[in-house]
Design a protein that fits this description.
Length: 96
């Protein structure tokens, strides 16, 4: 009987620790949920902000198109420069 009581005391103390941890964990989740709900209210209840974000995304897509174009142009110029330098070095090496 005493063994059972000792085990119950051990279990009781561990259960108390677990319940205290769970209460703290639940409290953290409440604050996170509150913060998320505030952010959602700001984002989704404000049509001006939504249109600004959509405008920024469109601008980003346009910028990436131009960036891709200029990167292609730069690659072509670098490739042409490498070919020109190689041809010049070969001509210089041959001595013509």
């Amino acid at each position: 009987m005493s063994e059972i009581l000792e085990k119950l005391d051990t279990i009781d103390s561990k259960l108390d620790e677990l319940l205290i941890w769970k209460a703290g964990h639940d409290k953290k989740h409440e604050s996170i949920d509150r913060d998320i709900s505030e952010v959602r209210e700001v984002l989704f209840d404000n049509p001006g902000l939504k249109s600004n974000v959509e405008g920024l995304l469109r601008c980003k897509n346009n910028m990436s198109r131009w960036r891709d174009f200029w990167m292609y142009v730069m690659k072509v110029i670098i490739a042409a420069a490498i070919i020109a330098i190689t041809a010049w070095l070969l001509k210089f090496y041959k001595g013509d």
